[in-house]
Design brief:
Elements: H1 2-7, H2 10-19, E1 25-32, H3 36-49, H4 63-68, E2 71-79, E3 82-89, H5 98-106, E4 115-121, H6 136-144, E5 151-156, H7 163-175, E6 180-183, H8 195-213, E7 218-220, H9 229-240, E8 245-247, H10 249-252, H11 254-261, E9 270-272, H12 278-281, E10 287-288, H13 290-300, E11 305-309, H14 319-328, E12 340-344, H15 352-359, E13 364-367, H16 369-372, H17 378-391
Parallel strand pairs: 4-10, 5-6, 5-13, 6-7, 8-9, 9-11, 11-12
Antiparallel strand pairs: 1-3, 1-4, 2-3
Helix pairs in contact: 7-8, 8-9, 13-14
Length: 394
């Protein structure tokens, strides 16, 4: 697979080390082309399309040609019919706006076949606009009092339950010892379980269970919503005592999430959900690499934990792709905290040993439907899964 050959290559390491010292920010694109000349022509097109978006003759001989227009730093062949082109851009072209940063990294070029954004590097000064995760891995561990090893997480479902039914599930999962319990991503403000009623009921339920067990389970409501309603729900959830929030950048956009996480009024960890991102990451010839989308962009927006579809479940990601995502959540990005990788999508306890081999000890294992169908008693189901998590530490 193209991602594997790139991220395992000495080329990626060399590019990463060299580009950190540039004053310009850089992006690495995979280009599907038969020859070096073809790849260079496509790279030249990217450099122009991502910046001035007009014939170069209009800026020829001016400072715009040497500064504003993207500059090709390097083109190297990675394997037959594939090249990796590194293009640098002027930070002044984007200012502090994440919307324009993403647009310049892969705006119009995302519409070109055979071009894929693999990774990017920012000079340290640009990170002044991107504080990144407020909590990161260590902060989430402190909140749920899990000092080491994989952390168990579950989701309440299915859509159609009322608020009290969901609250009961939260209570039982917390009684069973689940450290992190979240809304399913389909739960919004439906009439049978409105956001405010459901969130308050679930927070009360997790608090009641914690008082009974002495535990520290967290409830994470889905705050994804239309426009600025997202901010309203996130701040209300914080006021009501939620342990964090969940947001879907594929639906909201990374910049909107960045605006919330950098706010001094917001003090909760953010869990990013992958819905609506498949079209961006699944093709090997186009779109964005999972390493970049979930790992780099997720952290840049302030995500403390990044949910993605793990291997062995009902989705298409391989072990190697999942490993790259986990590496993206921990790759050096100035002094940004590392985010938690959260494999999901049909996970079950029988996958836990393989998951630990791929992700190591710093991961959150999200199990939903398999946990609910393990038996008729949700508390006991949860205790069983917690034992399977503990066995990984032996």
């Amino acid at each position: 697979m193209s991602d594997i050959s790139f991220f395992d290559s000495t080329l990626f390491q060399e590019l990463t080390d060299d580009l950190k010292h540039l004053s310009r920010f850089t992006a690495v694109y995979q280009i599907h082309a038969a020859t070096y000349e073809d790849a260079k022509k496509i790279a030249e097109g990217i450099a122009v399309e991502q910046t001035i978006e007009c014939p170069v003759i209009l800026v020829q001989g001016t400072w715009k040609e040497t500064t504003i227009v993207g500059q090709i730093e390097e083109i190297k062949k990675s394997r037959p019919d594939y090249f990796h082109a590194t293009i640098s851009y002027d930070p002044n072209c984007v200012g502090g706006e994440m919307t324009e940063l993403i647009n310049m990294l892969f705006g119009n070029s995302s519409l070109q076949p055979g071009v894929r954004l693999m990774s990017f590097e920012l000079p340290d000064v640009m990170y002044n606009d991107y504080p990144g995760p407020k909590f990161g891995r260590m902060g989430i561990r402190e909140l749920c009092h899990v000092d080491e090893g994989a952390i168990m997480m579950s989701a309440i479902k299915p859509l159609g339950n009322n608020s009290q039914e969901f609250a009961r599930m939260v209570y039982e999962l917390a009684l069973g010892g689940c450290p992190i319990i979240k809304d399913d991503h389909s739960l919004y403000n439906q009439s049978y379980a409105p956001f405010e009623e459901r969130t308050k009921a679930c927070i009360d339920a997790v608090n009641e269970a914690n008082a009974k067990t002495g535990g520290h389970s967290l409830f994470i409501p889905n705050c994804t919503a239309d426009g600025f309603t997202f901010f309203e729900r996130a701040l209300k959830a914080q006021e009501w005592g939620a342990g964090g929030i969940m947001a879907a950048p594929g639906l909201l956009g990374f910049p909107l999430i960045r605006e919330l996480t950098k706010s001094s009024d917001f003090h909760l960890p953010v869990f990013l959900h992958p819905c609506f991102s498949g079209a961006l990451v699944l093709s090997e010839d186009s779109g964005i690499s999972p390493f970049c989308y979930y790992g780099q962009l997720g952290r840049l927006a302030g995500g403390d934990a990044v949910i993605f579809t793990g291997f062995g479940g009902r989705f298409a990601f391989s072990k190697d792709t999942c490993k790259r995502i986990a590496e993206g959540t921990d790759t050096t990005m100035a002094d940004l905290k590392s985010a938690f990788p959260v494999p999901s999508g049909g996970m079950s306890y029988d996958l836990f040993p393989q998951m630990q081999q791929v992700y190591g000890n710093d991961a959150i294992f999200l199990v939903g439907g398999a946990l609910q169908t393990h038996g008729s008693n949700l508390v006991e189901n949860m205790k069983f899964y917690m034992e399977k998590i503990k066995e990984l530490k032996k």
